[in-house]
Design a protein that fits this description.
Heat Shock Protein 90, alpha/beta, 3 domains
């Protein structure tokens, strides 16, 4: 249940208590009562209220003063303010609305009218918040999609030069090996010759010693092996990045979640390698799942990053690596992907992340936007579930459950263009 923070500012304690009791009938109402306008402005700066009810006539700062001060910070959509007034003339109502009041209620208030007006403004405020949240998720999603496309294009551009560089290094490795063998054999044979009979032999051996060819022949293959190893690692990074970015307009299909998880962990390695150790316990018999694999990999990435950032912010033992085990399994109602974490420290990932993750509503906004996006992908796009399980101490598990998604309930791109067959 969502909590609605409401402030009542009225210098009449009797009237304020009557309004408070009336509003207490609202589900989730958290009500604060102050006696003057200055206290109302002070409370509004310290607490984000969903609605304020302000008396028109108060000592020091009256209702109009309060509205003008608060409108310098919050708009009508961000902070609804209802003016409470005993005056019923048109001029007072018009003046209140022009100064920034969202609505007005004539005192003594009628409980049913007050509840109806307050509920209407709270509903509007909730709708605005959800709209902002949805827009932020869309913006974040588009930004990630753009980054993914740029990364995919960059990986495509790097793939060819990285590949032919690796091929050339393999060729040079063979050439160097045979050349070194020839030089060493020549050196051994020249060393057997008599310098008096073969003057050039002495010059050859002097050159060999001065140039330290024995050392170079011993170290050159090692340097070439290291170079080849580095280039092959680059080739793999490019390949993994290209796979992670996906192919636009061809994301829906049957995909291997085990491979998607390995790909996600590899691409994000630089973000967790210094604070965590990631291991896998993957079900080799896990069936391919109908999904938007690029979106799911982004969701997996966000969950993994949430755990890593949690460890980085407050691990109980900062020198200990966070242990993350990624597990897949199959059940009668779909497949499960679990991110088990040990070593986060108590209270690092708090109750705010728990709220809403196991429902159809998006989780709370704020610093947890990564999980909001992951939740949107799993729940809204794939009709699955995202839950957070914690045990006393330092263990925590994110659980992603994915049902078997049928073509009729899949993403429009799938319905329009998928031709079938595992990837």
């Amino acid at each position: 249940m969502r909590t609605h923070k409401i402030l009542i500012a009225d210098d009449s304690s009797v009237e304020a208590e009557h309004i408070r009791k009336t509003l207490a009938a609202l589900p989730g109402a958290d009500i604060t009562v102050v006696e003057d306008g200055a206290a109302a402005v002070r409370e509004a700066k310290n607490t984000r209220f969903d609605l304020m009810l302000v008396d028109y006539e108060m000592p020091a700062l009256n209702g109009l003063h309060v509205v003008r001060l608060l409108r310098g910070t919050w708009s009508r959509l961000e902070l609804p303010i209802l003016m409470l007034t005993v005056r019923d003339d048109v001029q007072t109502k018009v003046q209140s609305l022009r100064q920034g009041a969202s609505d007005y209620v004539t005192k003594p208030v009628e409980p049913e009218e007050l509840l109806a007006r307050v509920q209407a403004h709270l509903d509007l405020r909730t709708a605005v918040d959800e709209n902002i949240k949805a827009r932020m998720q869309i913006i974040e999603g588009r930004k990630l999609e753009t980054i993914g496309r740029l990364a995919g294009g960059l990986a495509h551009e790097l793939n060819t030069p990285a590949q032919f560089t690796a091929d050339n290094l393999v060729f040079l490795q063979k050439v160097l090996s045979q050349s070194c063998e020839l030089l060493e054999t020549t050196h051994l044979e020249v060393a057997k010759l008599e310098p008096e009979q073969h003057p050039w032999a002495g010059a050859f051996l002097d050159f060999w010693r001065k140039k330290q060819l024995s050392y170079l022949i011993g170290e050159a293959p090692k340097a070439l092996d290291e170079s080849l190893s580095g280039v092959m690692r680059m080739v793999r990074i490019v390949r993994e990045l290209k796979e992670f970015a996906g192919v636009p307009e061809m994301d829906w299909g049957l995909f291997d979640l085990n491979r998607a998880l390995e790909n996600t962990a590899y691409v994000s390695r630089q973000l967790w390698v210094s604070v965590a150790q990631v291991s896998f316990r993957l079900d080799a018999a896990l069936p391919h799942v109908m999904c938007d694999v690029t979106a799911l990999k982004q969701a997996f990435f966000n969950i993994l990053l949430t755990l890593v950032e949690g460890s980085d912010r407050g691990a109980a033992h900062p020198r200990e690596l966070l242990q993350i085990e990624i597990e897949t399994s199959q059940g009668n109602d779909g497949v499960r992907v679990c991110f088990h974490a040990q070593g986060l420290g108590p209270g690092v990932i708090g109750p705010a992340l728990l709220e809403g993750l196991d429902s159809t509503e998006a989780p709370l906004p704020g610093g947890e936007h990564k999980l909001a996006l992951a939740h949107s992908v799993v729940v809204r796009q794939h009709h699955g579930r995202l839950a957070l399980e914690s045990t006393p101490g330092r263990d925590l598990t994110f659980v992603v459950h994915l049902p078997e998604v049928q073509p009729s309930s899949a993403h429009p791109k799938f319905v329009a263009g998928f031709a079938g067959g595992p990837n």
